[in-house]
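Q: I'm building a small set of examples for a reading group on sequence design. Run inverse folding on the following structure and report the sequence directly after it, with nothing in between.
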């Protein structure tokens, strides 16, 4: 198995107990979502707006025993 930065990010999220990620897959996050697809512990939740994803991640962090994770790409400019 080839270990990449995306693999390492998912591994780290699994080690700290993350169960969900919220975000919009795009050209800058393709490898991360590929690695999340192989994870048995983390479920990526696709959102239609980064602001909504941030609220969802915040709600998970406040209402459960895990952290909320928001996955976003670089700003457009």
């Amino acid at each position: 198995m080839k270990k990449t930065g995306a693999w390492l990010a998912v591994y780290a999220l699994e080690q700290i107990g993350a169960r969900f990620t919220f975000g919009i897959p795009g050209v800058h996050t393709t490898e991360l979502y590929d690695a999340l697809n192989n994870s048995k512990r983390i479920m990526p939740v696709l959102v239609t707006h980064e602001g909504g994803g941030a609220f969802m991640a915040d709600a998970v962090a406040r209402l459960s025993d895990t952290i909320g994770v928001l996955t976003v790409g670089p700003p457009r400019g």
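The longest strand covers residues 20-23.
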